[in-house]
Specification:
The protein has 254 residues and is α+β, with helices and mostly antiparallel strands. The chain has 8 helices and 7 strands, in the order αβαββαβααβααββα.
C-alpha cells in the first residue's frame, strides 16, 4: 500500500513540474504565419517583387502634332549607318509620351504653327552598345559626353529620354546654331553665352534653343549641359527602379 502511494506522489510531482504551454505561439524560432507571412517572390522573405513597367507607345501614333524623323532609322546620322533595322517609329514609355504631349500643347500656345520634331527616343541597349564600341577612338571621358556607356544604361535604353528640336508646319527644323548630334562645343548649352559673345551663335538661334527648353521644362523634362537637343523625363535612379531596360528592337513586341 505504501509503495502504491509513493508511485502516485512521484507522478503528481512530475506533472506539476512540467512548464505550461506558451500562449499566443510566442516561440521566436517558430513564429505564427501572421508574424512571418510567406514570401511573395521578393529577394527577402515577406518583401514582394516590384514588377517594372514597360508600356512603350509610338510617338508617331500617339500625337500627330508631334513630328518624327527617326535619325537612326536612316544613314543620315553622325555614324552614317542605319542602326534601327526594324524600327520605323519612335517610342517612349507611356507617362513620358504624355509629358511630351504637354510640351507640344505648350508650344502651340506660345508659338502657333510650330511643332516638336523628334530625332530619337527609346533606344535598344544593343544599339547603345554598338554606338559605344564604334566610338572607341574617342577617350572614355569625352565619349560619355555624347553616348552613355551601355554598362551604366542610358535613359534612352529605358524609354525615358528624347532627342528633338523645333520645326515649322512643313517639318523644316528651326536654326539652332548647331545640328543634332553635333559634337562641337557650340552645341553645348553650357557654352552658349561664350559663343553668343563671339558672334558664332546668333540671338535668334539662342532664342530657338531657349524656346525648346522652355516648353520641355514646362512639361517636366530636364536638359543636359552638353546637348541642346537632349531631354530626360526622370533621373537615372528613378527610371532604373521603375522601368525595364529595352534590350533589342524585338523587345517592343515582348
Amino acid at each position: 500500500m505504501d509503495k502504491t502511494w509513493c508511485i502516485i506522489a512521484l507522478f503528481a510531482l512530475f506533472v506539476n513540474c512540467t512548464p505550461p504551454s506558451p500562449k499566443g505561439n510566442s516561440d521566436t524560432k517558430n513564429p505564427s504565419s501572421v508574424e512571418n507571412p510567406a514570401s511573395k517572390g521578393g529577394d527577402c522573405i515577406g518583401v514582394p517583387t516590384i514588377k517594372k513597367e514597360r508600356d512603350l507607345v509610338s510617338i508617331n501614333q500617339n500625337y500627330p502634332e508631334i513630328f518624327v524623323s527617326l535619325a537612326y532609322a536612316s544613314s543620315e546620322n553622325f555614324m552614317h549607318e542605319v542602326l534601327y533595322l526594324k524600327w520605323e517609329e519612335a517610342y517612349l514609355q507611356k507617362p513620358v509620351a504624355l509629358m511630351l504631349n504637354k510640351a507640344q500643347d505648350r508650344l502651340a500656345i506660345l508659338k502657333p504653327g510650330l511643332h516638336l520634331l523628334v530625332y530619337d527616343a527609346a533606344r535598344p541597349l544593343s544599339v547603345q552598345r554598338y554606338m559605344w564600341n564604334a566610338l572607341d577612338s574617342i577617350p572614355v571621358k569625352e565619349r560619355v559626353k555624347f553616348v552613355s556607356s551601355p554598362r551604366g544604361k542610358s535613359l534612352h535604353n529605358l524609354g525615358c529620354a528624347v532627342d528633338l528640336t523645333l520645326c515649322d508646319a512643313k517639318g523644316i527644323p528651326l536654326d539652332m546654331g548647331a545640328g543634332f548630334d553635333d559634337m562641337r562645343l557650340i552645341a553645348y548649352p553650357m557654352h552658349e553665352a561664350r559663343y553668343l559673345a563671339e558672334g558664332s551663335l546668333t540671338k535668334d538661334q539662342l532664342a530657338n534653343r531657349k524656346l525648346l527648353r522652355s516648353v520641355m521644362r514646362y512639361a517636366g523634362f530636364s536638359g543636359i549641359p552638353t546637348e541642346w537637343w537632349h531631354f530626360n523625363a526622370y533621373s537615372k535612379k528613378e527610371a532604373l527602379e521603375r522601368f525595364q531596360v529595352i534590350e533589342t528592337e524585338e523587345s517592343i513586341n515582348q
